[in-house]
């Protein structure tokens, strides 16, 4: 019934859609895939800075910036009697996802992959087109890095969704009740270290309030909770419960669109930058559970920029800039998704810009419609956005977060219309560079460019709050989702 | 009777077609695509296109509609854009939960609401009537999520009598029934008030009719007059109301289903709409409309059973 | 000429109306309902004078404060005064409800009359359209309208009006059908009255009474629909206060600050009581079957 | 002199099956004739009484004549012209008027008496400098106080509403008045009032009237001719006095005998007729009255009698009219002797 | 069981938003077993109010004064439960409108079984057998099938006969028929009158027949009360009322009936003037404003009930015994 036993019950916000790593949708499915598939390496808990370590490989080495050698651990075996897991399978998995013909959304993770060379049954060499430092933390331990069975997949016609032809991870996918529950049971053939729990039940509960109540009613052992509930839980935690407070990789910023006719003038954009009181957002929306971000890179990590250029609101400066630009009665719309956190943030932005003399009207959209607003394939609407409150789930490596602001992303995800050649070259250098100091300098410079353009107000990286039974210690990946395989019972 | 049935079914089919046409028009208007919703910035243009093609949205709208109905005729409602599972399977997994929930809630609401309505008619003008009135109208306005959350707190967290979430273990009727209690109650509460009020109103009307005076003039006891002579007639408008209500319960149970994490049609359809998973939207709407239409037909037949005057119209 | 019939009763229409009002006020429930409704209307109209604070003044340092002398209803998740928001929310809620119900009522009235009095084929088409509208899923419909028109109070009113007019139209149609062959309509046809004249002068005033009652009883229902749409994020544009959005905001902090749901929900409950009992009172006194009998 | 109104072989049927029914069902229910083969005529300034029991189709016939219900067969001739198209009916309606069975219900309930009274003129587009004054003049004409202009129909008593109905009907000086049960639901005294009023106006304006009723006691005083209807068919017509003194059709005879007499000394001891009134839905075979006729013969059950002239402007639909054969006369007098008391 | 009925000083007023409607004022009537009493008067004069008061079925807005003694018991003093027990057992009421008197969704048989609920000694089958017998007596053929019919499947005349049968089933001591034939056609009216007359022969209770149709009253009743504007203005043996009416109203009423004239009249006789308002009834004689023979005290002093013979009385200043 509880974590003290052999069953671990964790709650996720949504149901799985597909178990094909190439097409999986979100972290939710990855939680299951982390159990049923194997990747060459794995990450540690984000609170420890997510260090990577070996997992499905007994050896994984960067031989030179463009070649990585690996050897699979011995005894990995496919379910369904498809034999041992081989380097051939690794080659198939990586090259499949990188193949543009497959149109995998995750292809970019293997953008730099040239090919995988099979050396023998268990070892091979990954050849990159260009040096790509981040591969160990961005690609290999995640979805894209999960190894699937070549024989099985080919037999299934090259694609599958919810019924993987074969798995090889520590758990077997044993039961699925749609939109309710997924059950994983220990794989008896798993050669690696035996996970602490023989059975993992993953419950689908979309609503945070309900999930917290269900946790308190002992329906599961691990759940994320609403940010707004954190204070109360901290003050009076449920019995035998620990609270996890961390920063997720999801970064939030305010887009100021320089393509908008109202914001063509950089001074006007800067006026907006000076007019947003981020501190109020942190307090009002995030209960001060998170710090202000200095860019898209998570604060407190080594790549983080030391500080924002405009670190505090300055309404006078803002007004002065407007006057300088000869603009009065500035009235802007703020495009925002319609959930409670985002609209609360928008309202604070609205209120603080009001103080700077800028009128803001909030325009909420449902998620799907929101993305359509800035999509150039839907027409010229993207040039008309004034302000947009945006957030992306980022990665560990700065390149993963900076990639969306390249010039070619204008009209896709770069809603600021930020078009900087220096940023583009910087990006190319950043992914090729292996020297960490240089990479830090590069990424900081790129964030400076962003801020100077007047196109961005960096707000924060969203906090991650979860509660779990003290009987075990969870491991959470930087994407905010747990890896149940690595949960450790506390003695 | 047969002619009537054929006519009603024909009309029902027409409604289905119209609803689906309207749905396709809405899809045409509503922006957004599943890939972007699901993947945000990771959605590549190629993938978007792939999914749009998979959903057939690149075809002319009229063609999509024709295709949809052609497939629907063969029992194929399309495929989930991501998992590629047949929509009919998705619906069939969610539908029983919702139907059971909706029917239980309605049954509870009727079992409590109708007697309450009768009681307030029998005690009309007294404090009991007033109390029932205020309670039943007041309860209509209490949002079901409030009921849901507080009953969760009480019965699941504090007392631990009932499971907090889910629809119960598959195949275990007892656990399913236990899981049904709170969500059904949360939905039923407002309906109790609504039905009590409705029954009272139509009963008051009936009580003024001459045949009630006839029954009185024969000294029949008041409870018998209310429960047999008046209720048979007064319940008729309530049936139409409940029929329409069941339709709306099925799709509006979303909040309650969300709080109790019960997989159901309401959630299926809202999720599908918000993720622009159009095949699921279309298939589900088709089935829900068909159910809605059938419920109204069933209600009409039930009314015909209860009211011989109407019955004769059908015979004719 | 002939023996003229003496005037039997001195009841003038105006006096009758007065009498009606007095009768309406005599029923205790209706009196309370009238007070409630009037109270809400006054609150809505005089919100700026009644509200102690600005409803949009954010004060993140004092968010989710429980009720106190300073903030009678406490503060919301952004530190705004809840009482002020509830007061201004009455304005939004009542505006949306009354305007959308009025629009839906007007459309329903017109289409219902046309369906009921017009030719059979037109009736068939309209009824089919009403039924189809009724079975359309609200969210999809709301989304479609909202994306075309943009979120906001106006759109919300359109969404609600568009989804609720079919049931009014059906009611009016049924009534029109019942009246269509009534003697006075036949009499008018014999006088060669045009269809428009019959519809607007003779049918309309006779079907509109029950509709108004129904509309008044539907006002709280619409307020709840607005609340429901707020939940789906399709409600009014923030930071406009509305009872629906207050409830929605309250839900997210229902554990830590239950007073938000309570104070957000209470006016809704009271408004429901007020409008429902007012409608019922009106019905009891206006229903032709209960029409005050003319004393001999 | 040519008749003002002639109705020839008029039938009205209410179709019971809908269009869709007929599409689907190869054997649809036949429509049933509520009015069946009615032939009658009305001279200018004449008063015709149309008498029959409830449901015999009197109202339907009157409404059909004015085109409110479409006839299934037959011809309507008004002032010598065939009335066929809607335009014909409209022209006819301008020269005729109708009083409805229910006086209050035929007045639009939300309009005031003043408005109602002047509606005909407004619709016809007649110039009317002062609507209120015109209404008051009309009220005076029918003997109602001028203050009634502001009343609503439901504030009128039955008799008062009747008077308003008369004023409305006669406002346009019609040539023909169709009065459907003009005294139903009225007390005897008020009934007298209304009939006297109609009679007086008739003498003044010279219109012809068809008065539909089932009140024999009343109609004998106001009509020149009588038409008796049974189950949608005319069974007898003739001058009023003659019909009353010597009815030809057994049904007419029973009707006259059934009327209770307000004199306790002349109680009738047996009902003149027994049995239920059949419905038009299931019209009896042969003569439709055979199920209740005291003089029924076997021929009556199978063969439908034709409507034939009996001299002196009388018509009858009966195989064995009461005056003709000696045998029948005897039978009837015997029957009468049994049924009349004292 | 049957006994005498006597109402004395009976007044009923209805409270309405317009004020009180004095629908019945100081009415005295009596009836003895075996008698058929007629109540006649113009529409709205309070006939239904009177008999409804007798059956204790007045609507909620009615206020009643005076006493109704049935079989020596004052009905007004009984509690609600005892009154209910009396209804449908001792007192039965046949309503004005046969079309709406029965519940439309229950079969005739079902309702008639329920109406015999006082007969706890009978089984359901026995009750049905009684119904069948009674339906036969009121001239409804095929009783078994009719019991399974719904009200709308019967014609108006049949429904009225079923209503009478229902009343008779309870063996009432007092049978009230409020306008039993008004809604029917002449031929059917004659049939119902005949039926009631037949029933009288072996029925030993009181029958009260209400009608505004003088012919019906003349055909059926032993004694008649004439009502005008809420008052009984004259009462007496049927022959006396029709052949020796004393009250000017009775005389005028009889004179107005066109059925009394066999020769065609050019002008029908009428009573000039209109009914007085029952909200503010005249202080003096209610008929004074319309009375041709009125003299000074009529307008101010309410006339006394003048006893003319043993059972003939009129409320008029002009009559003398
Ligand atoms: N619109 C209609 N549809 C179907 N049947 C109808 C319709 N109108 C009348 N009838 C039927 O036609 C028959 C004749 O009706 P009508 O009203 O003409 O009779 P009536 O002689 O005027 O009777 P009454 O004396 O009761 O007014 C009745 O059986 C009635 O039920
Ligand atoms: N419930 C009531 N409330 C108010 N007034 C009423 C009520 N019932 C009857 N009246 C009035 O009381 C008076 C007497 O009505 P009642 O029904 O007794 O007359 P009636 O002689 O039976 O008339 P009718 O011949 O039309 O049946 C009428 O003026 C009527 O309007
Ligand atoms: Mg008629
Ligand atoms: Mg009466």
Commentary on this structure:
Chain E: GO terms for molecular function: ATP binding; ATP hydrolysis activity. Chain E: This is Oligopeptide transporter subunit ATP-binding component of ABC superfamily. Chain E: It is a peripheral membrane protein. Chain E: One of its GO terms (biological process) is transmembrane transport. Chain E: Residues 5-254 form the ABC transporter domain. The complex is a heteropentamer of chains A (491), B (316), C (296), D (342) and E (321). With 491 residues, chain A is of the alpha+beta class. Helices cover 27% and strands 23% of the residues of chain A. A six-stranded mixed beta sheet of chain A has the order 11-16-12-15-13-14, sandwiched between helices. In chain A, strands 1-10-9-8 form a four-stranded mixed beta sheet, covered by helices on one side. In chain A, a hairpin with an 8-residue loop joins strand 2 (41-43) and strand 3 (52-54). Chain A is globular and about 75 Å long. Residues 1-13 and 288-296 of chain C have low confidence and may be disordered. Chain C starts with 12 loop residues before the first helix and ends in a 10-residue tail after the last helix. Chain C is elongated and about 75 Å long. Chain C is 72% helix and 0% strand. Chain C contains eleven helices and no strands. In chain C, helix 2 packs across helix 4 (82-117), helix 4 runs antiparallel to helix 9 (195-231) and helix 4 (82-117) packs parallel to helix 11 (258-286). Chain D has 342 residues and is an alpha/beta fold. In chain D, helix 4 (113-124) packs across helix 5, helix 4 (113-124) runs parallel beside helix 6 (158-170) and helix 6 packs parallel to helix 7. Chain D is built from twelve helices and twelve strands. The radius of gyration of chain D is 22 Å and the shape is globular. Chain E is an alpha/beta fold. Chain E is built from ten helices and twelve strands. The radius of gyration of chain E is 20 Å and the shape is globular. One adenosine-5'-triphosphate binds next to helix 2 of chain D.
